Please model this.
Amino acid sequence: MEEAITDMTDPYVLFEQARKRSPNPFSQKTVIADTEIWGHVMSDLSSLNQHIDLAIEQAISDVRQEFSNQLGIAIKGDRGTGKSHVIHRVWKKIEKQGGAVFAYIPPCNTSNRIQSHVRFYLSESFNHQDVHKTTQWQKLAIAAMLTLKGTEYEEKYRDYLEKSAQVKQLKKYIQQTNVAKSDLFGFFDDLAESILENQPQLDFYFLKAVLLSLLTPVKEAQLALSWIRGDETLGTHELGLPQQSDAKSIWMIQQICKLAKVASLPVVICFDQLDSVEPDTESGDSPAQTIARCIDQIYSQCSNVILLCCVISDTWREIKHMGSGIPNRVGQRQVTANPPNEEEMLELVRLRLSWFYETNNLNPNDYPPLYPLEEEQIKMIANSFAGVRSLLEECAKKFELDKAISTLEVKKKKVQEIYSELSSKVSIPMNDDTKLAEVISLTMKMIPDEGTGNVIVNKVEPLKSSSHNLHLIISGYDQLQNKDVKIGVRVCETNQYRTFNAVMTRLLKYETYKITRGCLVRSTPVPKTWKSSQILKQELEKEKGGEVVDNFKKDDIKALVALETMYSQAENYGFEKQELINLIKDLKLAANNPLLDEILSTPV
Model:
C-alpha cells in the first residue's frame, strides 16, 4: 500500500504520466502563424534579434518626425531565425504603447489581385484592439475628431470630444443623442464635413466610413468597414457610400496613410511568408516578385508608411534581380536576423519545458535543470549553427517517450498535432472567394487515392481567375454510379444578387467547361428575396443535376485552411511538400472533411 502511495506522488512517475498524455512541448507552435502575430507566442526571446526591433523603432520615429515620408525595410534571414517573432514584438509594442498603426499581410499568389488583397488585410488588421480595447480604426476616428479642437467647430462638438478618451462612452453618447437612423447618418455627415474644413486632403466618404467605426460592433459600423475592405455588401448605399472597384485599392491605402498622418501615427505594413505560396499561374511571377511590385507601388504612391518585408536568402535574390529600382525601395534599409547563440538556445528550451511543467502542474524544482534533456545535448545542437526550428525538432525527438515508435508514426503524430493546433486558431478568409477556392483546390489534392464521398479524385484543375469564372474543375470517378465525373466549382460569398446571378449563369454553361456537374459553394443560404437567383439555383439543382453547398459549418473550412497553412509552410515545419500531402492522405484529414465530401458526393 505504501508503495502505491509513493508511486502516485513520485515526481518522476508524475512526469512520465504527463509525458504520455500531453503534447510534446517541442512540437507545439514551432512556426509563427498570423494569429500568433496578434496573440500569444509560446517561446519568444526579446533579446533575440533586438537590433531589428531597434531598426524598426527608428524607422517609425523617422517617419513620424517626417525625416522620411516612406521607408522600405527588408528583414533578411534563414528559416527559423526569428523574423516572425520580431514582427510579433512590433505589434505587441504598438498594442501597448501606440505610436503607430500596424497591419499584417499574409501571402498572395495572384498578381492581379495583390492590391485588393493588401487593402482587405490592412483593413482587417485595423480591427485589432489595443490594450485599452480600442480598435485601430477607432483610434484613427478619434484622432480625426480631435482635430476639431481649436477650430470654429469645437463648441458644437465639445460634449463628444470630452468623451473621446473612452470609446464606449463616446459610442453610447452618439447613439443616445442621435436615436433615429436619419439623425445618426446626418450626424456623421456633418462631423465628416466639419473635420474636412481643416483636413481637406481626406476624402469625405472614406472619413465618414472610418468615423462610423466608432459604433462597432453595430451593423452600420460593420457595413462601413466592409466598404473600406472592398467587399460587395448589401446596405452600404444606405450609409450614403458610393460603389467602388478593386481599381481603387491603392487609393484606399493612400487614404488610410493620410488619415494616420493626421493622427501622427505612421502606418507599419508587414509582408511575411513570401515564399510560402506557389507562383502565379497567369503571370509566372513568384510570390516575392508579386509582393515586391506591390510594395514598390505603395512606396511610390503613399506617404507616412513603413513597409516591412521578411525574406529568406533565395527570396531576396529574386527581388534583387528585379529592375526599375524596385530592390532599392523594398530594401531601402536592410537588417539580418541571426540564429540564437548557445545561451539563447538554452533559454528557449527552458521556456518550452516551463510550459510543460506548468500545463501539467509539475514542480520544476523536483527535477534536474532542463530535465529530461541535458545541457550538453542542447549545446551540441547550438554549436552546429542550427536555427530555432532545428533545435526544436531535435529536442522533440529526444523528448519522445517510446523510442520504439517508427519514424513514420512520429511524423504522423507531429502532423496530427500541428493540424489540431492550427484548426483551433487559423483565421478564415470568408469574404475572399479566390482564397477560399485556392484552399478547396489544394486540399482536394490531399484526398486519399481511394477517394471520399464515393468519388475518386483523379485531377484538380484551377482555372484562370476572372470576375465570374469557375474556380476549379475536379475530374474523377463516381464509384456509386460507375461513371466519370467532371465537377465545376465556384465559390461565391457575394451579398449582391446581380453578382450571384452572373456567377450562376456562367456555372450553368456545362458545355463550355465540359463538366458533368456544377457546384456553387457559399457559407450562407441564397436569400429567398433574390427571386431571379432562386430560379437559377433551381435550374442548377433540378435541371442540371448540380448543387449549391450553403450548409457547411465554419469549422469545416477552418480545418481546410489549417491543411493549406501546413502545406504552404511545410518546410518551416520540417516536411517536404509531397511528403506532407502523403501523410495527410494517410491520416485522412482531408477525406474526413464534410465540405469536401459534400462537393464530391452526388446531390440527393
